[in-house]
């Protein structure tokens, strides 16, 4: 679920800030953040079985139009990790961030 706002301060620039929540089921979290007992023995990390999670995020996208057929796009997102994800022995941060240009 996401709420975004389309804002065009002038003819060339468009900004779209957004906030939302991302849901991940237990299968997704176990695949990416879980550690099975056999993997635990090989890696030395504690075995871990995360549950489903809901994580809030904020993002912004920007488009700048240079000419009729030429524009540039950039965006970024920060996601607060849920407790079940943060508790994984493989996770060192409490957030995830990314961007695109």
Automatic annotation (TrEMBL):
Belongs to the MipA/OmpV family. Keywords: Cell outer membrane, Membrane, Signal. It is found in: Cell outer membrane. GO terms for cellular component: cell outer membrane. GO terms for biological process: peptidoglycan biosynthetic process. InterPro entries: MipA. The gene is mipA. The lineage of its organism: Bacteria, Pseudomonadati, Pseudomonadota, Betaproteobacteria, Neisseriales. Its main location: membrane. PANTHER family: MLTA-INTERACTING PROTEIN-RELATED (PTHR38776). This is MltA-interacting protein. It holds the Pfam family MipA.
């Amino acid at each position: 679920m996401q709420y975004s706002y389309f804002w065009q301060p002038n003819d060339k620039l468009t900004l779209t800030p957004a906030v939302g929540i991302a849901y991940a089921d237990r299968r997704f979290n176990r695949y990416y953040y879980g550690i099975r007992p056999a993997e635990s023995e090989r890696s030395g990390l504690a075995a871990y079985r995360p549950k489903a999670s809901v994580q809030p995020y904020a993002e912004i996208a920007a488009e700048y139009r240079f000419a009729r057929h030429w524009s540039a796009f950039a965006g970024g997102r920060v996601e607060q990790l849920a407790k079940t994800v943060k508790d994984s022995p493989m996770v060192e941060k409490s957030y995830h961030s990314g961007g695109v240009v």
